[in-house]
Write a structure and sequence with these properties.
Blueprint: H1 2-52, H2 56-80, H3 91-101, H4 110-128, H5 141-150, H6 154-167, H7 172-178, H8 181-188, H9 194-202, H10 207-237, E1 245-246, H11 262-265, H12 269-281, H13 287-301, H14 307-312, E2 322-325, E3 332-335, H15 342-360, H16 367-372, H17 376-389, H18 392-397, H19 407-441, H20 447-461, E4 464-465, H21 478-481, H22 487-504, H23 521-530, H24 535-543, H25 551-569, H26 580-594, H27 605-608, E5 618-619, E6 633-634, H28 642-649, H29 681-704
Parallel strand pairs: 1-4
Antiparallel strand pairs: 2-3, 5-6
Helix pairs in contact: 1-2, 2-4, 5-6, 8-9, 10-19, 10-25, 13-15, 15-17, 17-22, 19-20, 19-22, 19-25, 22-25, 23-24
Length: 719
């Protein structure tokens, strides 16, 4: 008996000692997390200023902040080294320890990290800036994407697509230096090679072997969709395609999202065309598009973006959208364009999914995962929102899909939207990561070899070709120019379909309202606790998902696969005149309505004549660039002060000029003809005068009635 008591007392002492050590370590890490939040927030502010006012000055500030952030992370790594990892018994605490200790690319040697940061920054500056060529006519990326998705002239598509990518070609020499830095970062972080390193950053052990196996399951589905698209496009453009599609025909620069060609490839083009038209008729533009997406988040998770998001985001900038995490209290902001395309409709819902995910997990202080890891869980929730957004239930609820057609047509169109948005991206992510892993492992640094192998991988996974003009389109990708892996995006997309099956208790496409579906408490708790922990352990604990599988995705798309299989036996191209002129007139009408000055808010004369601003930049020679010999861009011609830009954006959205370019639909030579709806100045003056008079009357009533103005609570929420 005495020996038993001795053993019990001994275990109690050990347990108490371990608990005390865990508490001490937890307190120490929490202090580090608060410092992380402050430094991460400063970096996010610098990035926000850069993406909304891209110039050499804002880029330099952002680069300096990133370098300072890296220095901070290295200091914290050294601090955490004073604590014995073996003494930690709490799994969540051990995860945070590992994230602090293996902080990713920031552990590179100082000069190597500066090289990476500067290269990725210059590449982003070129992508955001107005370009100076005869073909591009100073149009931005948003303008080029618009041309590729609207213009039906195959030669114009090819020339504008080629011209854009050729503007980035000078970066290829420096990319040959930057890509091998992944291998250096892997060694510093204790990984044996690039594969293990990117798996570490994504929190997915043996991840690449697992996703290659899952990809093999869906490769046949992707091939069927690819063949269906090839058959339709070959008839539309009257050209022969041999198992691959020219990348410039897919409606975007990167060719990884095929939703811009939905009307050309769906079996029911008239229904798809009406969806495009209804996006305009419902005026789902900019902020209103995100309001609609937030309605979904209200019903699913009882959560909407915070007031700061609505107050400080920009909804009339460039696309693709940029969503910035400010690392504190779940604060995020978006900089996006106003166009109500299907792609932007899905993107808005996915972004809202990310926003509410970060808000709900804010109490667990997820800043370490935000700063040093790529969140599979966040991607999974985001992609789930995208899947639900394309469902017939939601398209009907938002009155985007007409009710005149039957459910079978609704089903196929809904599945086609999700398929053309999801499957090409998965294929692109696979080709981008596998190509880079192969190049690093085999020491491929020659520019020509990198470009040729890039197109080999795109053809293998995506079924795309360069039409004989092999150019480095990978330089248009922020993940590639920043040495970021796509593993988390691939894994998160598979996981999203598993989430869908779990929540809907099947993989069937929803016809009935998703708003009537009560969300499961386990899913909510998973989000609340998953932001700061090991995501694999979290999904196993709360949702009993112990492995990532493509089975749910395959089951979801099985009706589409069967439908395409039946069409293959007797394929018939359905000629459809999309009446682009009718859609253009509708777009122009809506823009004019939105540009009518509001009579309920005071608006300055300057805001009434706000025009789309383009940042003119001129590439400098390498001799003039003093930093690592990389391509720099001069923004000395940009006369717009950042303070003025900020002030303009804070003006009433109702009176902000929304751009509409008729010339984007026709001849590239006429791109400078920017025909915008005019606003009647005299009416604006009368409106301002009326508002001022009304304001005076209201003030008099308020004074004599002794009424008090109430300040809006800071934590007010919007739906």
């Amino acid at each position: 008996m005495p020996s038993q008591w001795t053993w019990i007392i001994f275990n109690l002492v050990v347990c108490a000692t371990a608990t005390l050590e865990n508490d001490t370590t937890r307190t120490f890490i929490e202090l580090i997390e608060f410092d992380y939040e402050d430094t991460c927030n400063d970096t996010a502010n610098a990035e926000w200023a850069f993406i909304n006012s891209p110039s050499n000055r804002t880029l330099t500030i952002w680069e300096e902040q990133l370098i300072s952030y890296a220095t901070f992370k290295n200091i914290q790594k050294n601090e955490i080294a004073n604590i014995s990892k073996a003494a930690i018994s709490d799994l969540s605490l051990e995860h945070k320890y590992n994230v602090l200790d293996k902080a990713g690319d920031t552990l590179l040697e100082s000069e190597d990290f500066k090289t990476l940061v500067h290269f990725s920054g210059i590449a982003e500056l070129l992508r955001l800036s107005t370009l100076h060529t005869v073909v591009l006519n100073n149009h931005t990326r948003k303008d080029i994407e618009h041309i590729l998705s609207h213009n039906n002239n195959i030669k114009n598509k090819n020339s504008i697509w080629t011209a854009w990518h050729q503007e980035l070609v000078p970066l290829i020499k420096n990319f040959s230096t930057v890509l091998p830095l992944v291998d250096k970062a892997a060694k510093i972080n204790g990984a044996k090679d690039v594969t293990e390193y990117w798996e570490l950053l994504s929190g997915y052990n043996d991840g690449y072997n697992k996703i290659k196996y899952e990809w093999s399951k869906i490769a046949n589905l992707h091939k069927k969709v690819l063949t269906f698209v090839i058959n339709n496009l070959s008839h539309k453009y009257k050209i022969t395609m041999n198992d691959t599609i020219p990348a410039y025909l897919l409606g975007s620069l990167q060719g990884s999202d095929w939703t811009p060609i939905l009307v050309d490839t769906t079996p029911y083009p008239d229904l798809m065309y009406n969806i495009k038209k209804n996006l305009w008729k419902r005026k789902l533009i900019g902020k209103s598009l995100y309001r609609t997406a937030s309605t979904m988040s209200t019903q699913i998770l009882n959560q909407v973006p915070q007031a700061d998001f609505w107050d400080r985001s920009y909804f009339n900038q460039q696309c693709p959208s940029k969503l910035i995490n400010f690392c504190k209290e779940g604060i995020m902001r978006v900089s996006t364009c106003f166009e109500p395309t299907v792609s932007n409709f899905l993107s808005a819902h996915k972004n809202v999914g990310k926003i509410v995910f970060n808000q709900m997990s804010a109490n667990t202080i997820p800043v370490l995962n935000t700063a040093n890891r790529y969140s599979v869980l966040e991607v999974g929730v985001s992609e789930l929102f995208g899947i639900l957004a394309a469902s017939p239930a939601w398209l009907n609820y938002t009155r985007i899909m007409d009710n005149s057609t039957d459910n079978d047509q609704h089903l196929i169109v809904s599945l086609m939207i999700t398929a053309l948005n999801t499957l090409p991206r998965l294929a692109y992510y696979m080709s981008a990561d596998m190509w880079r892993i192969n190049a690093i492992e085999n020491g491929i640094t020659n520019s020509d070899d990198l470009i040729s192998s890039w197109w080999e991988y795109r053809q293998k996974y995506e079924g795309l070709n360069s039409n004989g003009t092999e150019i480095p389109t990978f330089l248009n990708d922020v993940y590639i120019t920043s040495n970021k892996p796509y593993l988390s995006e691939i894994t998160g997309t598979f996981l999203a379909f598993q989430f869908y099956q779990y929540l809907m208790e099947s993989t069937e496409v929803r016809y009935d309202s998703i708003l009537e579906k009560k969300i499961k408490a386990e899913f909510v708790r998973m989000i609340q606790q998953g932001g700061a922990d090991d995501w694999t352990r979290v999904i196993d604990k709360f949702m009993e998902i112990d492995e990532i599988s493509a089975d749910s995705l395959l089951s979801f798309f099985s009706p589409l696969e069967d439908f395409i299989y039946e069409l293959e036996e007797d394929f018939e191209y359905k000629t459809f005149n999309p009446k682009e002129s009718e859609l253009e007139e509708l777009e122009k009408k809506i823009v004019e309505e939105l540009n009518v000055p509001s009579t309920t808010t005071t608006t300055t004369a300057r805001s009434l004549v706000t025009e789309r601003k383009m940042t003119n930049t001129t590439p400098l020679s390498q001799e003039n660039d003093k930093r690592d010999g990389m391509i720099a861009v001069d923004s000395s011609n940009n006369k717009i002060k950042s303070e003025e830009r900020l002030e303009n954006r804070k003006e009433s959205e109702a009176s902000t000029k929304v751009p509409f370019d008729e010339s984007l639909h026709d001849n590239i030579i006429d791109l400078d003809e920017n025909k915008k709806p005019k606003i009647n100045t005299s009416k604006a003056v009368w409106a301002v005068g009326a508002v001022l008079l009304a304001t005076i009357v209201i003030c008099i009533i308020a004074i004599f009635g002794r009424q008090r103005c109430r300040k809006t609570p800071k934590n007010r929420r919007y739906v």
